[in-house]
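User: Hey, my collaborator sent me this sequence without any context and asked if I could get a structure. I don't really work with proteins. Can you help?
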Amino acid sequence: MQELTHYINGAHVKGTSGRFADVFNPATGEVQARAPLASTAEMDDAIAKAAAAQPAWAATNPQKRGRVLMEMVRLINRDMDKLAEALSREHGKTLPDAKGDVQRGLEVVEFCIGAPHLLKGDYTDGAGPGIDMYSMRQALGVVAGITPFNFPAMIPMWKFAPAIACGNAFILKPSERDPSVPLMLAELMTEAGLPDGILQVVNGDKEAVDAILDNDTIQAVGFVGSTPIAQYIYSRSTANGKRCQCFGGAKNHMIIMPDADMDQAADALVGAGFGAAGERCMAISVAVPVGEETADKLIEKLVPRIEKLKVGPYTAGNDVDYGPVVTAAAKANIERLVQTGVDQGAELVVDGRNFNLQGYEDGFFVGPHLFDRVTTDMDIYKTEIFGPVLSQVRAETYEEALGYAMDHEYGNGTAIFTRDGDTARDFASRINIGMVGVNVPIPVPLAYHTFGGWKKSGFGDLNQHGPDAFRFYTRTKTVTARWPSGLKEGGEFHFKQMD
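Assistant: No problem. I've predicted the 3D structure and written it out in structure-token form, which is a compact way to encode the shape of the chain:
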């Protein structure tokens, strides 16, 4: 069995805590590797090494830092197939989905090549007699990212690429469920020319997380995961004086208006609801058709599409629609929530409870499920299931449909399908949710915009990637400079207004 490592100062380092986490092949249920779980001392040592390396990296001009990321782009494209295969083997995603995971992270690396422009400050000459004022964006120092299992390539790159472009050193604590790709990315950064110590990958569990949150050297923390943990990390980080951005759970609604193209809407719902086995924070898990006729038509379109979904391991070919969920515990939780939906009176239109894949009986596969006539008091509506389960909530009017999305505690993403521009504009303007799609089911912004949810889906003032990332990973310093020009006025004992 493979024993994984940490990645410290440009080299693989064995764990010394004596504690390990099993890394499964979700398709077979077999343990394929062990990931070391760092102690507080190991994490503190990695942080100290990063702190020693960071000043020289911050002093490197932004254009040279950008060139490292430029080379990283080439290396990721070179190793795309290798990265995708490792990702699929540990996560369970299909290979096309795994490549998409890598690609969406790669796009952020590409954006960060433009760091010289994004780090420019402001300048005012002649603010007063012989006085110039200017601002500088400077690195924070050592920062950290705590990233989830469901996007083991994309989200680490969303975190470390802008942080490193800004001149920081970065501590990455990836999910212990699928840590191989983050380790491979760190190797590629070293190959791209990143100095040792600037990107440290430290595997771990809660002990390692708390070591990050309590270490005085760490200046900022980014997190993606469940809302309870997001709240914990945000509160503990900020209590320790750190800058923090945390992104939590989601329950994404898609409103389908009577004038929508029903085939387009059904295709969008199937892809957005069941892709990656529903293990996406931007997955559509609630369909809200407006009007009984719309709801009946949508069910009629959805059922045959869902029943034709091909579920299997990534090795079965590119025509597999989705693979297993990540762990046996995740599978058990999804099955429990499905049964809760049945018990609470929802109509299970497509029942995947008896799904069984021959030859993979020990894998963590979950069949597709479609509920109709779900109500807002049901657990399957209130809870983020994070599995291949789509719920339909019927609304009589547009206002009622809008209210469902607005009243839910989560506010990550939402979408509306309609042919009416007035309705779409009203929806986009009024909805209290961070990312909105109009005839787009999964409205994940491209790298040059920012990604972030509202309400209990996001904690902190700034979003991920885009311009916000460069604001998050830098401090602004403002300089007021006066150069003598023959004026001698003596000491000043009060703030003098600029002439």
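In plain terms: The chain has 16 helices and 23 strands. You can pass these tokens on to your collaborator as they are.
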